[in-house]
Amino acid sequence: MNSRLKACGVGLTLGILLVASGIAQGQERDAREEFFRSQALGRPMHHAAVCAGRAVPGEARCHAHMLMMDSARPLAMTGPAGFSPTDLRNAYAVTGTGTSSTIIAIVDALGYPNAESDLATYRSQFGLPACTTANGCFKKVNQRGVQGSYPAFNLGWSQETALDLDMASAMCPGCSILLVEADSATLQNLALSVNTAAAMGAHVISNSYGGSESGTTTFEPYYNYAGIAVTASSGDNGFGVEFPASSPHVTAVGGTHLVRSAGTSRGWTETAWSGAGSGCSAVYAKPTWQTDAGCARRTVADVAAVADPNTGVAVFGRTSRNRAAWLVFGGTSVGAPMIAGLYGVNDTAVNHGSDPYRHKGALFDVTSGSNGSCGGSYLCTAIVGYDGPTGLGTPKGVAAFGF
């Protein structure tokens, strides 16, 4: 084949990909140029919550944020941008890959018909082993544990779910994945879904959502399972506490701004992300393993991971029900499934959220940045040692995530 025909073939292939994803060639070019220009200049891009607005009492909203071209268009591309699994594993010193006998459960609300196929695209792109229903690695159920009778499709929650599945895969590519789709975004249905995940043998259960603490004591027992790790994202609106991150039985995951740093031995640096949730619970008692003096009740968070959308992660997900693309995500929704993945790689006994407090040396301390106004205290300001936005720090391997 001569060079002209080869070029035509490449152009035709790209054209097919663009049509399939619903991305115009001009839009693809503009999106990639804008992303890499912003990265090079350190200039923030606009991002938006995929679950817009604040949750009303008794309901939750997801904590994922997506980079946008403008107020109406996501930064959608035919190839990945943002941090890859290799980047994330390098940043957090993760070497193990987990085993299929370990189940990571992802709990989200509403339906995502393309969950398995979109996950397959992500894993294939980055050379991760296939995780399908056919090979026994992937299983999707409704909140009653039934395969079928799934809730109706919801774009925002499907994007959240794509993020969760991809991040769990990035950290523990050898683990099995159980996706539980709650009937709705009520805290009751999500709590029942967590209970289903526990009953179906999950080693760790990831929850990337939150709502008001008020009236949640009825649901809190559904996040309390001896021997099962439960992770929860801390929030995406800055200083302030949400449930289930405030449950004393979960590992609450805050957020950071993660960048490469050639001048450090680690090769990366982190500061607290301005959007990460943190603070002092108004409802839940302080667990025995927390010893910070500025909060008499449960303090959020416990640990952290990358969350700033401008140092975000590559995800393959929906831009509409019938179209998919590569997107760039942030929010503390990134960290909850990532930390779940590290519990999966470690695959040892767990004791609620206390494990990181016994392994502080297996965490990178984050000592600068803030997520709001709290009189300059550690509850919203990153300092040496424990603080609200980043907890004890970010993963340095997996040793902090097991007994």
Question: Can you give keywords for this protein?
Answer:
eight-stranded mixed β-sheet, 25% helix, disordered N terminus, Rossmann fold, single chain, 403 residues, globular, four-stranded antiparallel β-sheet, alpha/beta
How would you characterize the overall build of this protein?
With 403 residues, the chain is α/β, with parallel strands linked by helices. The chain has a single domain, classed as Rossmann fold, CATH 3.40.50.200. Helix content is 25%, strand content 22%. The strands form five sheets. Strands 4, 5, 6, 7, 9, 10, 11 and 14 form an eight-stranded mixed sheet that branches. Helix 4 crosses helix 5 and helix 5 packs parallel to helix 7 (335-346). The protein starts with a helix and ends in an 8-residue tail after the last strand.
Task: Estimate what percentage of residues fall within beta strands.
Answer: 15-25%
- Total domain count: 1
Mean pLDDT, as a whole number? 92
Described by the principal axes of the CA atoms, the overall outline is globular
Give me the Rg, rounded.
20 Å
Looking at the structure, the CATH topology is Rossmann fold
The CATH architecture can be given as 3-Layer(aba) Sandwich
List low-pLDDT spans: 1-19
Please report the distance between the alpha carbons of the first and last residues. 60 Å
CATH class type: Alpha Beta
Number of helices: 8
> What is the chain-wise order of helices and strands?
HHEEEHEHEHEHEEEEEEEEEEHHEE
Query: What is the number of E strands?
Result: 18
Structural class: alpha/beta
Write the layout of secondary structure elements.
Elements: H1 3-21, H2 25-41, E1 47-49, E2 61-62, E3 65-67, H3 85-91, E4 103-109, H4 115-125, E5 138-142, H5 155-171, E6 176-182, H6 187-199, E7 204-207, E8 209-210, E9 229-233, E10 251-260, E11 268-272, E12 279-285, E13 297-300, E14 303-306, E15 313-320, E16 323-330, H7 335-346, H8 355-358, E17 363-364, E18 394-395
Parallel strand pairs: 4-6, 4-7, 5-6, 7-9, 9-10, 10-14
Antiparallel strand pairs: 1-3, 2-8, 3-16, 10-11, 12-13, 15-16, 17-18
